[in-house]
Amino acid sequence: GPRSAELLERQQRRESNARTYPRNIPIAIAEGSGSFVRDVDGNVFIDFLTGAGVLSLGHNHPELVRVVTSQLGRLTHALDFPTPAKDAFVEAQLSMLAPGLRERMRVHFCGPTGANAVEAAIKLCKTATGRGDIVSFQGGYHGCSHAAMAASGLVSQKRPIANGVPGVHFYPYSYCARCPLGLRPDTCETNCAGLLEKSLLDPNGGVARPAAVILELVQGEGGVIPATRDFVRRVRALTRSLDIPLIVDEVQTGCGRTGTWFAFEQYDIEPDVIVASKALSGIGTPVALIMYDERLDVWQPGAHTGTFRGNQLAFAAGAEAVRILHRDQILANVRERGAQVAERLGELRAHPVVREVRGRGLMWGVELADPGDGRSAGQLARQVQSRALRRGLIVELGGRDDCVIRILPPLNVTAEVIDTACGIVIDAIEESYR
Ligand code: PMP
Asked: What pTM was computed for the model?
């Protein structure tokens, strides 16, 4: 519409941020409510981007609005001092961990974005182990600050940067749809994990014992790729046997997104460090933290500080979000709506241009293949995204060449909205491939 066009044009002239989401989703957003946003011209869209997975209870959940508003008149910023809002938030966060893990975990607020928490996790493990190398996985994403970017396996962002953070070693991830080793899932014997084992166990080669291994259990930006169970369990067993801290980056998968509070629960493993951010407050008031095993509790006073660590508005919202999660049985909804997505989008599996449909909970991706008509899979995905937008649905792309259509609905989304949105995705793919 004309008002969107005007704001987009003004943004384009002044902000390089215009080169991200607004380039392919050209709308200016006026307001949001639940699973929907309205643009400045009055058009309404289903929002399955939800601020990159931040708005887990949708836009402007009324109860979150109420607690944030009430906190706003009481206390907004208190550095690292204890406050009732912070105490309630930490209590709520720890209550979501299994007993045992809960007792062992310490919390460190970093802030305010996911990348800040990744930096903290890496730095803590380096401090605790006295070692410097990091093991990460191909296709992973951990953020745009220096060390987080260095640990990311998506390479296009860091290629132009001179003198990046050294000492990060990449290993293949269990991306079975396009196996990095060219193997087949039924006969591969999880050789991706095998390669890492070989390298870390080989005394005369491979990587010197690293300070940490950092892992996404479902690669999000990498294209919604759930790690296989065998892969994760072997990485955990190996790191445990060599006393290497395992960092799980749950920035995107955390806070219920995959159907459990954290994705690692579904693999029956316990990490040494958990990184969380995006949906912690449920309403987009920024907050990021790490939870780490008490054995790693080595930081001296002042070792890792920062001004914006722990936003009181986020604390108030986050504690309330956990209360709502229990009361409204949000995790059950994630699993039920996830099963609905699996069934609806599963129809696409036979489609000639669809390579794979995969996901966990309410984190789903449709990976497209090259259509064989001169367009790349990534170009096709871009067209699907535009067509979906025209039909009233906001989706994001991801994956190695942006060939995966990604959806991240609010966790309290209704069956009806899921049905409509899946229909739009299917129609947009049909329409783009004819
Ligand atoms: N880790 C993961 C898994 C992410 O998905 C993201 C953000 N997409 C980050 C880290 C970085 O978070 P932020 O953008 O808040 O710095």
From this structure: 0.98
